[in-house]
Specification:
The protein is mainly beta and 226 residues long. The protein has a single domain, classed as Mitochondrial biogenesis AIM24 (Double-stranded beta-helix, 4-Layer Sandwich). The protein is built from four helices and 19 strands.
């Protein structure tokens, strides 16, 4: 399997497959394909895993694209202006944590399941920060980033506090918790929301410059009321 990242504004990853090789994605993730690609839709991982994906806001069903001949191509595009990041899971034997909606596509040897925060109450009140996905296995995983990606390598004990909507993913060695914004004035007047995601190293963290939820909220506020 070879791949190429195409485009800058709303990019895509185009994957070249040999006969028998596959990629899978969320429903509607495929942008284009050449002849020689077949698609199969199923509840990847069984019923329980599929139902778990509902908690992340993803589709129950996944689409798997398989090459019937060498050199067949299939591409997966982002849904908003941003970037695509490829992660070689062989370099992350303990897995990689993903924020919901960050998954774009992956090889079948990469497994993705729902992962809950250690403290249920913190995640529950943290809104977007409650449910994560954990990717494990070997092969390539591709993430969708809204806006520009920012990659930080946290030292042991180093802390980074991020708006939950700006978290893309992080290595499993990074600890994660929800922290409430301090001060009544900051909560009611600051306009930054009630919660932050506290990430503590060591490990790599990927954040995105755009919080699409906030962006969509601003657009919605400008729409006519009638």
């Amino acid at each position: 399997m070879n791949y190429e990242l195409i485009g800058k504004t709303v990019p895509a990853v185009e994957v070249t497959l040999n006969k028998g090789e596959s990629m899978y994605s969320q429903k509607g993730g495929m942008a284009w394909q050449t002849e020689g690609i077949t698609m199969k839709t199923n509840a990847r991982g069984g019923v329980m895993k599929s139902l778990g994906r509902m908690f992340t806001g993803e589709s129950i069903f996944m689409n798997t694209f398989t090459a019937e001949k060498d050199g067949a191509k299939v591409a997966f595009a982002t849904t908003v202006p941003g970037d695509v990041i490829g992660i070689n899971m062989e370099k992350h034997p303990n897995g990689f944590m993903l924020q919901k909606h960050a998954f774009l596509c992956a090889q079948p040897s990469v497994d993705i399941k729902v992962a809950f925060t250690k403290r249920f109450s913190a995640g529950f009140f943290g809104g977007e920060g409650f449910i994560l996905q954990k990717a494990q296995g070997n092969g390539m995983l591709f993430l969708e980033v809204d806006g520009d990606p920012v990659i930080r390598k946290l030292a042991p004990g180093e802390v980074l506090k991020v708006d939950t909507g700006n978290v893309v993913g992080f290595e499993s060695s990074v600890s994660y918790e929800i922290e409430m914004v301090k001060g009544l004035g900051n909560i009611f007047l600051g306009g930054e929301g009630l919660f932050l995601t506290k990430l503590t190293g060591p490990g790599k963290v990927i954040i995105q410059s755009q919080n699409f939820g906030d962006f969509a909220g601003r657009i919605l506020g400008l729409m006519p009321k009638k």
